[in-house]
Amino acid sequence: MTSVESRDLAGRASTRRFLLLVTVLLASSTVLLGASVLTLLSLTSLPHCAAEAGVDVHTPAWRALLAVQFHADLAGCRSDAARTAVYASLSYTCLTCAAALTLYWQLPRWRLRRGRLPLLLAADAVKTAAVTGPPGAPHGRESLPGHLAGLLWQAGVPSTSAPTFLVDPRAMSVGAFTFGRAGRYTVCLHAGLLVRRQTDPSRFDAVVLHELAHVRNRDVDLAYLTVALWRVFLALVLGPYLLLNGWLSFQEHVLGTARVYWDGGAPGPASFALSAGLVVQTYLARADILRHRELVADHDAVTCGADPSVWGAQRSSRASGATRTRLTRIWRSHPTWDERHHTLTHPPAADKGGTKLQFLLFVTAYVTLLGTLVSWLDNGTIPQRLVRSLAYLATPLIVATLIAIRPRRRPQPLDLSPAAPAGDGPSRRPAGVHRAPRTRRALAVGSLMTVLFLVTDPLAGIGDGPTGDSGPYSLGDLWPVRQPPEPPRYDAGTRVRVGAWYDGGGADLLRRLDGALSAAEDRSTGSGRTRRCAALERTMSETLTFPVFPAHEGAENWRLLLTWTTKGYAIQCRSGSHDPAAGAWEAFTWYRSAQVALGRLDDLRPATTSRPASGP
Amino acid sequence: MTVMDMALRSVVKDVVADQSPHELVLLDVMEPLDDAQITAALAGRGRDEEGLGFGLTEVAPLVTPVVWLVLNEFVSRGVGTTVDGIVVRARRLFRQRSAQPRSLTEPTLTAEELNAVHQRIREKATEAGIGTEESQRLADAVVARLACGRRPEPDPPQQGDGQATSD
């Protein structure tokens, strides 16, 4: 008899991986829903808000985007959009959970109604037979109810979980399957199996004990909860998200319809890549988890008296197609018969860690959760302390799972002492839900880390500034510094337009912006910072609505000026950090870069236009 | 020779008891269903359950669906024969199960009809994966049951003169 630890390794933290998968789906749901809401609001409220603020969304895309993100008159609309996205995504995610639970609860009933499978033995009848009949008595097997009741007793299924037995007369295979929900499990025997009850009793017992192990180990709940959640997620979240993004991307890239979106609501290839990754991750993770649950069910069935030769008889002797089998195997929810028989006859004696696939799936799940965390922090609507606390509370699950499936260079030997003495009666029952020492240690470590994180708050400061942007430290951004000015070479028409731009307010705007940037470089905090931020925001808002520089030589500098100014502003004036000085240096470098671009624009001014006195 | 009422399931049960008695449990389980439901249950294709199943795909060829579906087809369409009246007569022979089955005094099936049934049974049995010899024996048993009009009596013990009793 194998030990509790061997059984634990056969499952390889499947419950924890199930919970991690559910967490990933729920977290992804909030991100996708938030993005969808922002996209919809970009189509509905943003044009109205921009019109009221005097922002032309049909100007160069980069300026429209900066205006949407930083124009002062759009601040109210921006906050409303972000808040709506957060509340809608959280509410809709709760609705998705409720729908998934409803589907999980109702699915067995619909399945029974649709299948119209003949009843074999009701759960109450099984319980009655189990109570009144002598357990495990040989003559109990002559009758079908007695036989099933005896197997129930062998499998250690509590009476509260006693399943209903059905038969599927259409299925000629010698098998069975289990479905249902908590308190209402059903084991469906195939007709091919039922008719062999007395001619091939060892196979009959092995199959039924295997299915009863699924009932006892609550595999039915986990498997069908995941199925329900995934189907609802596809129907209510991912499907609409892909449809919306697909349609808008088609309009933009094929029909040429240009639009501007709230920050975080723009469709693009990243959304499809994220969706595809999520689908693949979920399918592979679910299949891997179910494969290991099957191995545990096999283990429990044999522990309860099933004949292991039933598994051995199924082993394939074919050598061909091995490569195809390996490639397709990762998508299937059942392990191969070779693997199943090998696990039964050679239970693991050393912990070698998880498989590469399991570790990869863990990493992708972890990255997905991190991405969700950063997304919430960036949004700024949810209090950052709350977001960080939620992240810390997920630590035990993440750490305990990592400990279980991380690859190990040196296999660690197990304690192979039997979990229970061999023999008839209840002592033959498997270890059940008793956790192996490794599992207990992993959960203890994770819990300890949660306490540590809640106290030290190591994630404080993340999300204080814009993410995903290359910093100003790259030479390509800071340099070229102000090069020796070159006389602009304009044709006559361009010279007139450029001159009109400067004389029509451009020169004054550059002067005021220069002053605001210089003032903003002051890194002192307090009310002075608030005033500087407000002044910079006003000047920036005017700049964002001012016509674009009319000549090619200056248009790029104009774009860089606005872009770098807004980056510094975002770090210095919009971060939720409790320490305003934390991003001051980074903001300073962006402001200096913006002043370089401003200086270039000043140098491009035609000699015929008047130059106002410089200064703040 | 008198003909007794032959309900469809009665004929099937007799044949299964004779040819494959371990399959009787399947008929016992479907006892509460009416003939149409049993036909639908046996004719439908089983779902490929990828969920929490044992994973065994080995198929066990069963005679019950073969016999039931062929006889039901015979009742419904006359097994492809074009002789007028066969369907009407067959339906009277295989009257749907009711609470109080009535006796009939219809003549037995003709040799042509029995041949048609025999051929169809062999075809269906072979399709289901039953071996050739077993298919032949099954077809013979079905035809014998239909021809006799009642469940065949078990063979009496061999006597010195080798004569079997007959009714």
Q: How does this model look, in words?
A:
The complex is a heterodimer of chains A (616) and B (167). Chain A is mostly helical and 616 residues long. Chain A has three domains: 348 residues, no CATH class; 105 residues, 2-Layer Sandwich (Zincin-like); 129 residues. Helix content of chain A is 63%, strand content 4%. In chain A, a hairpin with a 2-residue loop joins strand 3 and strand 4. In chain A, helix 2 crosses helix 16 and helix 8 crosses helix 10. Chain A is elongated. The termini of chain A are far apart. The C terminus of chain A is likely disordered. Chain B is an all-alpha fold. Chain B has one domain. Chain B is 50% helix and 1% strand. Chain B contains seven helices and one strand, in the order H-H-H-E-H-H-H-H. In chain B, helix 1 crosses helix 7 and helix 6 packs antiparallel against helix 7. Chain B is globular, with a radius of gyration of 17 Å. Strand 3 of chain A pairs antiparallel with strand 1 of chain B.
Structural class of chain B: mainly alpha
Uncertain runs of chain B: 1-5, 79-86, 96-107, 160-167
**Main β-sheet description of chain B:** none
What share of residues of chain B is helical? 40-55%
Number of strands of chain A: 6
Q: Looking at the chains present, what oligomeric state does this protein adopt?
A: heterodimer
Number of helices of chain B: 7
* Shape annotation of chain B: globular
Give the CA-CA distance, first to last residue of chain B: 8 Å
Radius of gyration of chain A: 33 Å
Region (Disordered) (chain A): 413-437
Pfam families (chain A): Peptidase_M48
Transmembrane segments (chain A): 85-107, 222-244, 359-377, 389-405
Protein name (chain A): Peptidase M48 domain-containing protein
Which characteristics define this entry?
heterodimer, A: 616 residues, mainly alpha, Zincin-like, 3 domains, 4-stranded mixed beta sheet, two-stranded antiparallel sheet, 22 helices, 63% helix, disordered C terminus, B: 167 residues, 7 helices, 1% strand, globular, disordered N terminus, hydrolase (chain A)
